[in-house]
Automatic annotation (TrEMBL):
Lineage: superkingdom: Bacteria
InterPro entries from the UniProt entry: FAD/NAD-bd_sf, FAD/NAD-binding_dom, Sulphide_quinone_reductase
PANTHER family on file: SULFIDE:QUINONE OXIDOREDUCTASE, SULFIDE:QUINONE OXIDOREDUCTASE, MITOCHONDRIAL
The protein, known as: Sulfide:quinone oxidoreductase
GO molecular function, one term: FAD binding
Residues of the FAD/NAD(P)-binding domain: 2-298
Length: 391
């Protein structure tokens, strides 16, 4: 039996590919949620372009025929015994295990955030419960400081904290509020983007909007009563208070707790996996992909699209007592929305080499056509291609 933990992008994509490879009836998928979201649309929801409803499908409609759905949470792993323990206390045995539970959002790691998120100008695109508050908060701004944050932890879609900042700056400009507001981007990182070619164009975008950047600054507290965000300097530990009219928070994230405490985890708490073959180095019948995998690449759906065929190929090889030979080069894509109708399609690999999907155009520029790809083409590719095991 092949057991897949997680019914998000990675789990459904791999399940569909396994069914197409003739493994129908041999795959069990563990996923507690009944709803499935195409989360890349949430930037556009926060910018008032679309709705959460457009991003939503029912999980039952996405699970491939021939895959058994266990609607429970995982509590722990016993890889030495080849079994998974569920939250109900039941155990599930497997011959092969694929671990893809996604990432955990740690709202509680920022003091005051749990109490303030979703109201009075404090918002986030990183949860379907709060994404509408981003658009509501932006429309309410008349003057003052509009603040966006990027934490010190890995996050899903590392470009998303910037995307909403650019949309907000564009909105304020279009509504004649640029002179009455100041847009700030606070990041715990040292620069805007790791790939120099995209760093250059995004720096130009920041300059065009007049966004004030603050690097090596990590959000540690939201004082909602005073409408002040408090940041800690990552190098000195010094605290800075930043007033806000609107505060968009990208919360800290980590591997799910049941992964951190498992024998499958690496020292950082992510699922240990060979960065090329996606096979666990200690438990050879275990594979990992997606946001919870300990891979040094940006955590995106595009990365999963390239990881899934590699994983399935290598799993099938192992099932036939062969060595895994397919390799993943770290490809990921970050479609960085830089305004209404503009986007930089940043694609790159483990070594930060640019990996363009459209070689006949210059993707290192802000482009309308790439915005249309994100807005219209990518969601269709997701629902009707990727999750069907076709892309």
């Amino acid at each position: 039996m092949i057991v897949i933990v997680g019914g998000g992008t990675a789990g459904i994509t791999v399940a569909a590919r396994l069914v197409r490879a003739g493994k129908a009836g041999q795959v069990t998928l563990i996923e507690p949620s009944e709803k499935h979201y195409y989360q890349p649309l949430w930037t556009l929801v926060g910018g008032g372009i679309t709705t959460v409803a457009e991003s939503l499908r029912q999980e039952k409609d996405l699970i491939p025929h021939g895959v058994e759905w266990v609607k429970e949470k995982v509590a722990s792993f016993q890889p030495e015994e080849n079994q998974v323990t569920l939250a109900s206390g039941k155990t599930l045995a497997y011959d092969y295990l694929i671990v893809a539970p996604g990432i955990q959002i740690d709202w509680n790691k920022v003091e005051g955030l749990v109490e303030s998120i979703g109201k009075d100008g404090v918002c986030s695109n990183y949860d379907q419960r709060f994404v509408d508050s981003t658009w509501t908060s932006l429309q309410a701004v008349r003057e003052g400081d509009v603040v966006f944050t990027m934490p010190s932890t890995p996050v899903k879609c590392g470009g998303a904290p910037q995307k909403i900042a650019y949309l907000a700056a564009d909105y304020l400009k279009q509504h004649g509020l640029a002179g009455k507001t100041r847009v700030h981007f606070y990041s715990a990182g040292a620069k805007l983007f790791a790939v120099p070619e995209f760093e250059k164009v995004l720096s130009q975008t920041v300059a065009r909007y007049g966004i004030q950047t603050h690097f090596r600054q990590d959000l540690v507290k939201v004082d909602a009563a005073r409408k002040v965000a408090i940041f800690k300097n990552m190098d000195t530990g010094a605290l800075t208070e930043q007033p806000y009219a609107m505060l968009h928070v990208t919360p800290p994230m980590s591997a799910p707790d049941f992964i951190k405490s498992s024998p499958l985890a690496n020292q950082a708490g992510w699922i240990e996996a060979d960065i090329k073959t996606l096979q666990h180095p200690r438990f050879l019948n275990v594979f990992a992909l997606g946001d919870a995998a300990g891979l040094p690449t940006s955590k995106t759906g595009a990365a999963i699209r390239k990881q899934a065929p590699v994983l399935v190929s290598n799993l099938l090889a192992v099932m036939e007592k062969k060595a895994p030979t397919a390799t993943y080069d770290g490809y990921t894509s970050c479609p960085v929305v830089t305004g209404y109708g503009r986007l930089v399609m940043a694609e790159f690999d483990y070594d930060n080499n640019v990996k363009q999907s459209f070689p006949f155009i210059d993707q290192k520029k802000e482009r309308w056509d790439m915005y249309m790809v994100k807005r219209h083409l990518l969601p269709q590719m997701y629902w009707h291609g990727m999750l069907k095991g076709l892309l």
